[in-house]
């Protein structure tokens, strides 16, 4: 399953789903960008978070890691940007487009790690029973409690009492959904939200994912990918070993785990704005009669497993059963959220599929059962009842989507009152493209306009985002209960014009 967001932070922020998580946790970007200012800060802070927000009798706490970056903050009245970390270890505050926004608005950036991921695990063993407090609902409550804690912490730092700064929340992919949901459930705690590629609609059979991969690929590349899928399905019947070894994936005993890796490998090129790295050689090979399988295997080995940094074990159900917390537990943890709350099963559509038809609903349900045991299944309907899906009844939430991103069909793609939605259209516009730049992979801080087919598409939406943030901060009247206390709110408009 392609994870949602896991490329590192940007990634982190972005990778969503299939791989949503995986990559981020590997810090591969950090290796790529060694020497550059990839993180604004990696200095850890800790907060004692409530384990179960919904129990009146369980008062246990766990340590939640967070980061703060105050270099651009105009004390004591500047806004506070809450950057939500999603389904992977959160190793710092990544220096992406949010830092440009923070500078512009003289904002502080704070970023708590998502419960259970990275170092914020409440348990030493991640068995199914211990995972029962892992949900988006608990995570949203964590954010609310953290927000109150941090406001007080900042007040103490500046010798203020009951002051309230204006807050704004940000997230990409799954954390983009959390960003939208936070504004929905706790509107009094934030002036607005940016949900970049926010997957607010839980989907059971997510066939639209594969369909978008096909559409993004275009007819020639799509038919080459389909031919490859057909050949591999046939070869698996006769000699699975050699075909798996061609892709460097001999470890995967389960054929469908292997097929899922191959499907994700193709999806990621579109998800992260790098379609040509996949499609150009395939279309050439088709024209000049080169073996398609060889060419695709080279892409998977060198790009997906190589420079992109995904590990084969991510797809190995044996690995997913490992209950020891650590950097690599993100794979298991995200699957738990998939299997219990949001599904997003990236199954093959009946017609015209790019991925193998063996990647079906049963494969996903069997995986859930194999990895977590009987009784864990995604109650997608409840999730959408709780949040509203694309009918989310919130306000002051910006939705952005990249035109090539297979995940966009789980986001809100139509504007409605107080909920502007923007589609960023270009050849390289993938997941979280507004915050990560264009293309998103290889990662370039703020993007590399030179490698983007239509950088204006990204820039224009960024201008819209700035206008919304500016307006909503200026309309925000967060004040404490005590009206005698000074209201520290400062108009963002003034902040912008003064800088
Ligand atoms: C968290 O709780 C522990 C144990 O009660 C305590 O020692 C520590 O100071 C607390 N940390 C914070 C940041 O409140
Ligand atoms: C807060 O008050 C303490 C004690 O009065 C003082 O030492 C400190 O400098 C003050 N801090 C700020 C930021 O004003
Ligand atoms: C998902 O697809 C499976 C297999 O085609 C089908 O049996 C099931 O009813 C579908 N579920 C939903 C909720 O659409
Ligand atoms: C055919 O295309 C492939 C993929 O781009 C390339 O590696 C190969 O060298 C080409 N072969 C010929 C004979 O042009
Ligand atoms: C299946 O897909 C093809 C190609 O996209 C399309 O022409 C055809 O109408 C589709 N058939 C059905 C039954 O949807
Ligand atoms: C606001 C916006 O651009 N929405 C578009 C998002 O994508 C869908 C599907 O392509 C379009 O129908 C919307 O108009």
> How many distinct folded domains?
1
Which molecules are bound besides the chains?
2-acetamido-2-deoxy-beta-D-glucopyranose
The pLDDT mean sits at 87
Cross-sheet strand order for the largest sheet: 2-3-6-4-7-8-11-12
Q: How helix-rich are the residues, as a percent range?
A: 40-55%
Structural class of the secondary structure composition? alpha/beta
User: How would you describe the shape?
Assistant: globular
**Second-tier CATH architecture:** 3-Layer(aba) Sandwich
Q: CATH fold name, please?
A: Rossmann fold
Instruction: Give a short account of the largest sheet.
Output: 8 strands, mixed
What integer value in Å does the Rg equal?
Answer: 22 Å
Separation of the first and last Cα atoms = 44 Å
Number of helices: 16
Order of helices and strands: HHEEEEEHEHEHEEHHHHHHEHHEEHHH
| CATH homologous superfamily descriptor | Alpha/Beta hydrolase fold, catalytic domain
Which spans of ≥5 residues are poorly predicted at pLDDT below 50?
A: 4-35, 479-499
Instruction: Give a count of the beta strands, DSSP E runs of length 2 or more.
Output: 12
The top-level CATH class is: Alpha Beta
Which band does the percent of strand residues land in?
5-15%
Organism: Canna indica (Indian-shot)
GO molecular function: dipeptidyl-peptidase activity; serine-type exopeptidase activity
Family: Belongs to the peptidase S28 family.
Signal peptide: 1-25
């Amino acid at each position: 399953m392609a994870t949602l967001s896991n490329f590192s932070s940007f990634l982190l922020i972005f990778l969503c789903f299939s791989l949503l998580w995986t990559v981020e946790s590997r810090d591969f970007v950090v290796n790529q960008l060694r020497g550059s200012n990839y993180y604004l800060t990696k200095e850890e802070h800790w907060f004692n978070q409530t384990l179960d927000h919904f129990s009146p009798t369980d008062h246990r706490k766990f340590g939640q890691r967070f980061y703060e970056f105050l270099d651009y903050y105009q004390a004591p009245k500047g806004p506070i940007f809450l950057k939500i970390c999603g389904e992977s270890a959160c190793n710092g505050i990544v220096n992406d487009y949010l830092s440009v926004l923070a500078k512009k608005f003289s904002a502080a950036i704070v970023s708590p790690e998502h419960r259970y991921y990275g170092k914020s695990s409440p348990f030493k063993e991640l068995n199914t029973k211990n995972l029962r407090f892992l949900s988006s609902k608990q995570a949203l409550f964590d954010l609310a409690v953290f927000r109150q804690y941090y406001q007080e912490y900042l007040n103490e730092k500046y010798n203020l009492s009951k002051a309230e700064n204006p807050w704004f929340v940000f997230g990409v992919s799954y954390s983009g959904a959390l960003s939208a949901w936070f504004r929905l459930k706790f509107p009094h705690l934030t002036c607005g939200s940016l949900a970049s590629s926010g997957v607010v609609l839980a989907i059971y059979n997510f066939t639209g994912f594969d369909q978008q991969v096909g559409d993004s690929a275009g007819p020639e590349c799509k038919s080459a990918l389909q031919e490859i899928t057909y050949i591999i399905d046939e070869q698996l019947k006769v000699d699975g070993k050699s075909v798996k070894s061609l892709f460097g994936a001999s470890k995967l005993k389960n054929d469908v785990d292997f097929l899922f890796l191959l499907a994700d490998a193709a999806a990621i090129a579109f998800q992260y704005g790098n379609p040509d790295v996949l499609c150009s050689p395939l279309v050439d090979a088709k024209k000049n009669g080169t073996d398609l399988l060889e060419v695709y295997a080279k892409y998977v080995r060198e790009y997906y497993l190589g420079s992109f940094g995904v590990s084969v074990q991510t797809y190995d159900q044996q690995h997913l059963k490992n209950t020891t917390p650590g950097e690599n537990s993100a794979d298991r943890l995200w699957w738990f959220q998939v299997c219990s709350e949001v599904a997003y099963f990236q199954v093959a559509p009946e017609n015209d599929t790019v991925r193998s038809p063996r990647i079906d609903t049963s494969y996903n349900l069997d995986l859930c059962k194999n990895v977590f045991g009987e009784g864990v299944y995604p109650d997608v309907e409840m999730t959408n009842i709780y949040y509203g899906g694309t009918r989310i009844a919130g306000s002051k939430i910006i939705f952005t989507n990249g035109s090539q991103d297979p995940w966009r069909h789980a986001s809100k793609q139509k504007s409605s009152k107080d909920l502007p939605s923007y589609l960023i259209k270009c050849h390289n516009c993938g997941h979280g493209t507004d915050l990560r730049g264009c293309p998103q992979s290889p990662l370039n801080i703020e993007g590399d306009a030179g490698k983007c087919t239509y950088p204006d598409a990204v820039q224009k939406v960024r201008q819209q985002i700035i206008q919304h943030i500016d307006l909503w901060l200026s309309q925000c009247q967060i004040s404490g209960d005590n009206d005698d206390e000074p209201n520290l709110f400062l108009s963002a408009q003034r902040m912008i014009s003064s800088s």
